[in-house]
Each structure stands twice: as structure tokens, then as C-alpha cells.
Automatic annotation (TrEMBL):
Key words, A-Z: Cytoplasm, Membrane, Transferase, Transmembrane, Transmembrane helix
Domain Sulfotransferase: 34-271
EC numbers for this chain: 2.8.2.-
Sequence similarity: Belongs to the sulfotransferase 1 family.
Identification of the protein by name: Sulfotransferase
Gene Ontology cellular component terms for the protein in this record: cytoplasm
UniProt-listed Pfam families: Sulfotransfer_1 (PF00685)
Record organism: Peromyscus maniculatus bairdii (Prairie deer mouse)
Single GO term (MF): sulfotransferase activity
Length: 284
């Protein structure tokens, strides 16, 4: 069931991590500054990967920062209490992360020149990643089966609501200069450097790639926040689970894939241009 959630403005939030008044405060009162950069994703789209890349770009490939400071201190979450207060007191330029849907994002952003990097991933892989995440943590409810999880996902009855709405609403920004759209399937470090106005030497870029690789990140435990929250239980293996595009094909049945495609086409009809990379394919 959905008992471990509260709903705010149509979006279900896991109650263990979030508070209604903080979501409201971050939307209405939090002041985003012109020099800020925000990493925005729908959960399980490669958030931690992008945080690692951006941090490594800032240190020109030197891994010391990412190996000694946890992700939530390098790039605090806008929508959680402790990190929001950390951000309010932080000197700029700040880096921060968020899973918030467009309509709940800090209003001040829309009057600022701050940058947003949005990562999009094949929603079928997002779904499978979220399914295994749910089964390996006490943060959200443990989905009974992939079949029921697919139904919930298609209705938006999962943490942070509908993938379709999250993606569609955020993509409305794609013509803006302060918005960079990336895809998990085609993560381009050079594009990120250009957007952030950083110029790295080829050997520095090699270091960025090296320390943000799946294997290197698996060895660096600075992304698993269960180390600070005693009540949170996350099997670290599931945060760095497989790290490949297309794993959904090993899990969906043909009927599930067809049903998914049907809903996808209905909901994403007007957004298709940029979703070409996320070609449906079929289960193996
Ligand atoms: P899988 O479960 O498909 O393996 P998020 O950080 O938004 O929660 O996303 C988690 C997903 O990103 C997981 O997907 C995880 O394995 C994948 N991931 C994390 N770091 C990665 C990396 N360096 N390269 C490729 N995939 C990565």
C-alpha cells in the first residue's frame, strides 16, 4: 500500500524522508541565487552519477573531495530539512540537487539566472531501478511484484509522482539558456563543462571519467546516506546496481512492454522530439 507516504499538491512523498512544511518552504521561501547550479532528476535517473561528474569537474578531476565528503554535503537536497538549512547558510556559488517536480520547485528560481541540469533516462529502466530500490530499502514500501509496480508507476503512485508529468513539465524549459538537458544513455562530460563555463584539459577530463565510472563509484561509499541515518536501511548494492541502459528488457514481459508503450505514447505524444534516444525496443 501507500501508507508510508503523504501527498502534497498531487505528489506522493515518502514520509520517512520528507516533511510537508519543508516542501512548502522550499517552494515558497527558499531563495535561489543567480550563481547557483541545480541538478534535477526524477528518482533513479542517474542523479548520483551526475553529482559525481559535476563535483569532479569543479576539482578538475581530483577525487579528494568526492572521496571524503558525502554527496548530500557537496550537493545538498533542496527539499529535505537539514540540507535546506545547510543551503541557506552556504556561500556561493552553490551546487544543489532536487527531485522536485516543476510545479513544486522554488519559485525564486524562475526569477533567477541560476542553472538547472536535468537528466532524463529511459523510463522503463527508471522503473526497474526503482522497483529494486524499493525492495532493498525501508524508505519506501516494498513493491509486491514488478507487475503491480508497473501499474503504480503508470498511474504516478510512486515517490515523486508521475514520470511522464515530471519529464513533460521540466522539458518545457528546454529552450532556456540556463537549462541543460542530458540523458543517462548519453552522458556528455564536455557538454556539462561548456554549460558550466569550465575549461578542462584532456587529462583532467580523463580523470573526471575515471572517478565517475560505475566501478569507481561503487567503491566510493559517499553516496549512501544510510551511514548517517540510523533508521534508514539501504542495501548499498542497490544504489550502484547495474548501471546500464536497457536492463528493463530482462524484466518486462512482452505484454508489460506493450502496455507501457501504449501509455508512453499517449502521455508523451507532444514531447517526442527529445525522446528519440529512449527507443522502446522489446524484451529479450
Ligand atoms: P540501476 O538500478 O539501473 O543500476 P539515482 O542516482 O538517480 O538514484 O540513479 C541510480 C541509477 O543510476 C542506478 O541504476 C545506478 O546503478 C545508476 N548509476 C549510478 N552511478 C552510475 C555510473 N557511474 N554509471 C552508470 N550508471 C550509474
Amino acid at each position: 500500500g501507500m501508507s508510508a507516504y503523504f501527498w502534497f499538491e498531487g505528489i506522493p512523498f515518502p514520509a520517512m524522508l520528507y516533511k510537508r512544511e519543508i516542501i512548502k518552504e522550499s517552494r515558497d521561501k527558499f531563495v535561489i541565487r543567480d550563481e547557483d547550479t541545480v541538478i534535477v532528476t526524477y528518482p533513479k535517473s542517474g542523479t548520483n552519477w551526475l553529482i559525481e561528474i559535476v563535483c569532479l569537474i569543479q576539482t578538475k578531476g581530483n577525487p579528494k573531495w568526492i572521496q571524503s565528503v558525502p554527496t548530500w554535503e557537496r550537493s545538498p537536497w533542496i527539499e529535505t530539512k537539514k540540507e535546506l538549512s545547510m543551503l541557506i547558510n552556504m556561500e556561493g556559488p552553490r551546487l544543489m540537487s532536487s527531485h522536485l517536480p516543476f510545479h513544486l520547485f522554488p519559485k525564486s528560481f524562475f526569477r533567477s539566472k541560476a542553472k538547472v541540469i536535468y537528466v532524463i533516462r529511459n523510463p522503463r529502466d527508471v522503473l526497474v531501478s526503482g522497483y529494486f530500490f524499493g525492495r532493498n530499502t525501508n524508505l519506501i514500501d516494498n513493491p509486491e511484484s514488478l507487475g503491480t509496480y508497473i501499474e503504480r508507476f503508470l498511474k504516478g503512485n510512486v515517490p515523486y509522482g508521475s514520470w511522464f508529468e515530471h519529464t513533460r513539465d521540466w522539458l518545457s524549459m528546454r529552450k532556456n539558456d540556463n537549462f541543460l538537458l542530458l540523458s543517462y544513455e548519453d552522458m556528455k562530460e564536455v557538454t556539462i563543462c561548456d554549460f558550466l563555463g569550465k575549461k578542462l584539459e584532456p587529462d583532467e577530463l580523463d580523470l573526471v571519467l575515471k572517478y565517475s565510472s560505475f566501478q569507481a563509484m561503487k567503491e566510493n561509499k559517499m553516496y549512501n546516506f544510510s551511514i548517517i541515518r540510523k533508521d534508514v536501511n539501504i542495501n548499498g548494492l542497490v544504489l550502484m546496481r547495474k548501471g546500464v541502459p536497457g536492463d528493463w528488457k530482462n524484466h518486462f514481459t512482452v505484454a508489460q512492454a506493450e502496455n507501457f508503450d501504449k501509455v508512453f505514447q499517449e502521455k508523451m505524444a507532444e514531447t517526442s522530439v527529445l525522446l528519440e534516444d529512449l527507443s522502446p525496443g522489446s524484451p529479450s
